[in-house]
Every structure is written in structure tokens, then in C-alpha cells.
Design a protein that fits this description.
The structure is a homodimer.
Chain A (H helix, E strand, L loop, with lengths): L7 H9 L10 E2 L5 E2 L8 E2 H15 L6 H4 L5 H10 L9 E3 L3 H15 L5 E5 L4 H14 L4 E5 L4 H4 L4 E7 L11 H10 L3 E5 L18 E4 L14 E4 L1 H4 L38 H15 L3 H22 L6 E2 L11 E5 L3 H10 L2 E2 L1 E3 L3 E5 L7 H17 L15
Parallel strand pairs in A: 2-13, 5-6, 5-7, 7-8, 8-9
Antiparallel strand pairs in A: 1-3, 4-10, 9-10, 11-12, 12-15, 14-15
Helix pairs in contact in A: 1-13, 2-10, 4-10, 5-6, 11-13
């Protein structure tokens, strides 16, 4: 099927041979929807509803305060963190679930600048996810110590690392283009210059194998509600290489990062290890929901997930080229699977309205300003036949021009 | 009954006249437990289980990404914030639900120091909740700009405010002693010296009327999982006086504090109003649970709550004095109701073991190092008869000396 036009039968054959196909039943998905937005908000595992109900009604409602010990609530951030460590190639004791991705970025960026006191540059990529850049700006202004935020084009990142670079802060897979950076090469280049790296794994954790320890990564953060399927606004995670933990100084020194939080000592005394990265009381209900998604990801082989993801993105891009020609849609994610994350981006000047028309027809992707239709490929609950059906609807939306309907032009608050 | 020893009949009479008594049925509480720890973790409202189940299974599971708009998820932090504003005497648009109390303290302390650039002192109270002090230490060290953390004894706070005081950071009701500070007098004294105030409402929001606007308070934070009954690790809230919002500069500048988060602009441009205090994606499931607790608090009059709280603390202290004499228990919370929060603290050198023996018998309070038995009085779900029963068990534990059992000596992780 490589050179001929794809047919529905080709995609059905891929589904028949898909060893991850049975995993779909572990998710609760609405009827009549093809969900291509798991890179923004992952779907709900079937087991989550029961787990959350039990945490609320039994652990909280019946156990009350006793559950901090008896239900292991206090250990949840580290326990789920250790599980996530298993998904991102990190050692036990190097990952904690805490706060939001943005707050964790702030914490670890601050740790990095403290560990490289003579250096003044934070290097990032033009087009990186805005919150990462905003957080860096905010910390730079707060410290008021002559730091600067430098931006390099993707191809120029390695060359831009220099003796004044304190930290290279990058997102592994770009939220907009889906382009995946070479974590190993960039980390090595940073270390060669004495700089640290801080990787944002928002669009890679759970979507593909990540090897933080193998690449000797210094610091990382990631998101709980995308490919880890932890639920809307699920807590985020952070990673600190074991070799850096003893010297890490955190900017927000809350009681759960204290060596003895329940001694209620007057002065701050940092906990050892990754516990030091904690700040406030852990969000128990959300953590329990996240654990279900993480357990599900741990039950399968991420190499299989990546292999299917590569095939899904390839097939989807081919289907758009073959079946939607003549309507000005341009596949904007990388053609080379080696540098492509688990999403397909399609550019069109009227992307917003086209996406609204798709959503109205049950094909849910999202819009990223100014002109991107973004389709996330989630191998755990997406089949190849779904791609055929989604592109059938996209082709119809383009052929009929139904997206021109005024109803699809009004911008919603969240896009 | 004022001068005679209290009898069970006296307490039953108080229950019979308690207009808040019917509210207890709105909470799910375990059989065989007298819960005196709602100041650490509030009890579960009956309605929470259904609301959380609906958010998980329908809004997330079926609505998926569409629920950010269609279920109003993006508005939750402000919507619940406005409701909390109604509980703490704040105007709509001045409270947001976000992050943890510790992270919010970090943000608002930083805002305060930025608004008072020439001043170098953060003034707090000796014995304030440790995380508040730790966070101040951490920010002081991070800024490395000559700030200092000054500690005053309770009686000396007003006198310690001076021309170099940037911010007076205090907890309204002390977590340990239950002593309530005079918010109005201290705020006025701070303003007279040109300083700002930052109040931590962890032990007052939902427990009594608070009048932030009436006292012209500058900044405040509070907790969602104590008297607001939002669930374990519920998100916290923050308050910024409307007159300060336009000049507030936040240290953690995440995308949800941006003027146009979904425009994905390269540079940070602060949102207007209280939205600027936001950082990362809101924790939807936890926020929905919190909203149920907040709605419940809004459905009653906090003046009634305070009146019952005063009576509960008074009766409980009297019962201990009258029924547990001779065992070395010393009531350590203020005798004057005007400066007493909604808890009774009892000192004993063996407080830890005594509390374990109580918990084993269904009387749940908590221990605060080194020697405090802490009993929280939550008027929404506690009756006067409960106090009689709890003190009956305490008297028995003391009379029999059963707390000397080795099983009660081993310290748990969370105390």
C-alpha cells in the first residue's frame, strides 16, 4: 500500500494487526466522536470513575484525616512520581507529582540558575510553548540579576549554547508544529558548554519512550492531563537528576519540602532528595485520578505506542494529501517521523472555522493560532479506521465549504 | 447553667435550640466517630460525591476538551473565587482559586515586596504556621536583595511595624494556639506605617465572618480543605484588593495570567484584574469538589456559625476542666472568646499518645508538636452532645491511663 492511494481496507488491515487495539476498551469515549485532541486533554480511563469515587466517598468521607496515613495520601506524590519515572527513563526517587507544569518550570528554572551562578543566559527555542517563555521572563525580572532569555531557531539551538548559558530550556515535542527535538544531542551540547538542560515533556511523556537518565538530563517537567490521561487540570510532575538533588535550592520553600514537616520547626530545613521539590499539601483526589492514567500507560510498552503513533501520523498526513487536495490544506508537521511527535498539524488560513465545523461533526481536534488545525494521535484509544472516517468528514467539510457558515467563525474563550 | 457543672441535659438543650443542627445532614460522616479535626481536613458534603462523579464521567469522559467552554471549566477559578469572596467580605473580582496556599503566599509576598521596593522587612509572628515562615525565608533568599524576616511576639506585632516594614504577614487564627489576631487593628497599624498586610485565612475562612474589604486588607490567602470542606489537598485561594490589582507584578507568570492565553503570543502581557494572579491550568475536578463545600458555606449565615463556634469552644473547654481534672490537661487556647478561633487546644506532655488513644476510640482530633491536643470545632456538623461524648471518652482515657499502651507511642508519618 506504500505507493498506491490508501483505501479503507488498508486502514482496516492496520487495525486488525494492531496489538494496542484492545487498550481502547480501557477508555470511556463518547459515541459518535473521533477524538484527535488527546494531546490537549487525554481521554478518561474507565477505571478512573471508580477510583475517584472511592477516594472521595471512602478515603475522604469515611477515613477523614486518618487517610493521610492509612490510605497513604502523603506518599501519593512520590508513589505516582516513581511510576511516571518508569515512563520517562528516570530512576525511582527522581520524579515527584506536584503543582502545575508552569509552577514546576518556575521552580526548576530557578534551581538551574542557582546551580550556575556566574551564567546569565536562559536559552530557549523560538516557538516554544508560551507559558515556558513567560515563566522564564517572569523569573528573569524577579531576580533582577542581569539574566536574559535568549531565543534560537530550532536549527540554531546547539550553536547558540555558549559559556554564558546557564540552562537550555526546551520542550521535547513542540505544541504547535509537533516537531521533536533531539534530546540526546542537545543535552550533550549543553553539558559540553557547562550548561544545564530543562526539558518540558508535556507532549512526550506517555506518548513515546523518553530516556531522561540515558541522556543524562538534568531537569524536566511534564503534564498529567495529556498523554498520561490524568484528567482536566491534573497535577504536573518534575524530575531532578539524583546527582543534582543535594545541591538544589528551591525558590518556593513550603512545608512539604521541609525535612520534618510535622515537627513544625520555626526555620526551613530542606528535605533530602526529590522531596525537597515539594511545596504545599498534595491534591489527593486529582493525584488518584492521575495514578489511574499512569498505571494504564505502564501496563503497555511505550515502544509499541511510539511505533503506532508514527504509523498513525503517517497515515493521517497521507490521507489528507490524497483525499483533501485542492482546498489549500498544507501538512505542517515534519514529514520525517524521526523528528515528528504524536500529532499532525495542518495549516489553512481559515483553520479556526474549519475546526469548528469538524467538531460540530464529531471530529475533535483543536485550533492553534494563527492558522493551525492540530490533530493529536493517541495510540491507546485511536484506531486507523478512525483516521479514514475523520478525513472523510474533513474532505466533506472542505468540499462543501460548510465551514463558511457564520456559526463557525465566533471564537470561543478556550480554543 | 453558667455556674453549676455542665450536665448532659445542658448540652442536649443547646442542641435542641441550635439552628445549624439541620446542616449536619448535608455532610457524610462515618458512624462511631466524633470528628474534631475539621480544621485540618473538613468533612465531605453529601453532594460532593455526585458532583465529582458528574465532572469525571460526563464533563470529562463525554465532553472531553469541549468542556473547557461548554461546562465552563475555564471560568471555575473565578466563579468559585467570587463565591469565596462572599465568605470573606471581598468584592467580586478580587478572589481566585489557584495553586496551594504555600504557592499563593509566595506569589502575594512577592507582589508585596515589589509594591514596597524601598522597604526590606517582612514582619511576621513568632509561632505563625511554619510554611508561611518557610516561604518568606525562601523568597528572601531568592531575591538576595537585603530583605529580612522579622518575628514579633503576638503582643508586640503592632509595635514592631516600622518605616522599613514592607509587609506584615500573619495568620488570622493561629494553627497551634487557636488565638485570633485583630485584623482591623493590625491592618490599620500597618497602613499607618505605609506597609502592606498579607493575611492567611486558613483557619478563619468559612469558620467565621471575615471582612477583608471592610478592614481595607491588601492581600490574603486561604485554604480550601479546612472549613470550606473542599476535600484533601483542595486548591487554595488568594485575594488582592482591587486598588492593587493594576500594579501587582507576579513572580510566576504562567499562561493563564496572560491577557490572551489562547493567542499564544511570544511575550508575556499580564491580564487585567485578579486573572493576572493565575499561573497554570486549573485543577477542574478538585475545583468542582471545592465549589460544593463553598456553596454549602454560602447557604448559611457565618454570624450563626461564629456564634455556635464560640459556644462550642466554651463548652468544650469547660467540660475538660470540669470532667478531666487531676490529669495534667491544661486548656491552652485563649479563654476570651473574642481572641479565640474555632478550636480548643489542650496541653499535656503526653499529648501524642493521648490523641492516639482518643482516635482509637473514635474521637478524632490531632496532635501538634510538642505537646498540644488540638480539637477543631466545626459548627456545620458538630453538635453539643458530641462534645459531652468526646469528653466522656477523654476522661476515661485519662482515668484508666490507657494512653500508656505502647501502641499509642509510635509516631505516624502524618500527625
Amino acid at each position: 500500500m506504500d505507493h498506491a492511494r490508501l483505501t479503507r481496507a488498508d486502514l482496516d488491515a492496520l487495525d486488525a494487526g494492531d496489538k494496542l487495539a484492545p487498550v481502547r476498551d480501557k477508555f470511556s469515549l463518547p459515541e459518535g466522536v473521533i477524538y484527535l485532541d488527546g494531546n490537549s486533554l487525554g481521554a478518561m480511563p474507565v477505571a478512573t470513575a471508580g477510583r475517584v469515587a472511592d477516594v472521595v466517598a471512602r478515603e475522604w468521607g469515611q477515613g477523614l484525616i486518618r487517610s493521610w496515613n492509612e490510605a497513604g495520601w502523603m506518599d501519593l506524590p512520590g508513589r505516582v512520581g516513581d511510576k511516571i519515572a518508569g515512563l520517562v527513563g528516570a530512576a525511582p526517587g527522581s520524579v515527584m507529582v506536584a503543582d502545575s507544569t508552569s509552577v514546576n518550570l518556575f521552580k526548576l528554572l530557578s534551581v538551574a540558575l542557582f546551580l550556575r551562578p556566574g551564567r546569565k543566559a536562559i536559552l530557549s527555542e523560538a516557538g516554544n510553548f508560551p507559558t515556558d517563555l513567560y515563566v522564564a521572563e517572569g523569573l528573569r525580572d524577579l531576580l533582577d540579576a542581569g539574566h536574559r532569555l535568549e531565543m534560537a531557531a530550532t536549527a540554531d539551538i546547539v550553536g547558540a549554547i555558549g559559556p554564558d548559558t546557564a540552562v537550555v530550556m526546551l520542550t521535547h515535542v513542540n505544541f504547535h508544529t509537533g516537531r521533536m527535538l533531539d534530546m540526546g544531542a542537545i543535552t550533550r551540547a549543553a553539558h559540553a558548554q557547562g550548561a544545564l538542560v530543562l526539558w518540558d515533556l508535556a507532549h512526550s511523556a506517555g506518548a513515546m519512550p523518553v530516556d531522561l537518565a540515558g541522556h543524562d538530563v538534568d531537569l524536566a517537567v511534564g503534564c498529567g492531563y495529556k498523554y498520561l490521561n490524568g484528567g482536566p487540570g491534573a497535577p504536573a510532575f518534575l524530575y531532578v537528576a539524583p546527582r543534582l538533588q543535594a545541591d538544589a535550592r528551591y525558590p518556593i520553600t513550603g512545608w512539604l519540602g521541609h525535612a520534618a514537616p510535622f515537627a513544625f520547626e520555626a526555620g526551613y530545613r530542606p528535605a533530602s532528595g526529590i522531596q525537597r521539590a515539594m511545596v504545599g499539601t498534595p491534591p489527593v483526589v486529582s493525584l488518584a485520578a492521575l495514578e489511574v492514567g499512569v498505571d494504564l500507560a505502564l501496563s503497555i510498552d511505550l515502544a509499541d505506542v511510539r511505533a503506532k503513533s508514527v504509523l498513525l501520523t503517517e497515515m493521517f498526513a497521507r490521507l489528507i494529501v490524497e483525499r483533501c487536495a485542492g482546498h489549500g490544506l498544507v501538512v505542517a508537521s515534519p514529514a520525517d517521523a524521526a523528528v515528528r511527535g504524536s500529532q499532525v498539524c495542518v495549516a489553512h488560513p481559515e483553520a479556526y472555522a474549519i475546526m469548528q465545523a469538524l467538531i460540530a461533526r464529531g471530529v475533535i481536534g483543536d485550533f492553534r493560532a494563527p492558522d493551525i488545525l492540530r490533530f493529536g494521535m493517541t495510540p491507546l484509544y485511536l484506531g486507523f479506521g478512525d483516521l479514514w472516517d475523520a478525513v472523510t468528514i474533513l474532505a466533506d467539510v472542505m468540499a462543501t465549504g460548510v465551514w463558511r457558515d457564520a456559526a463557525y467563525q465566533t471564537r470561543a474563550k478556550v480554543t
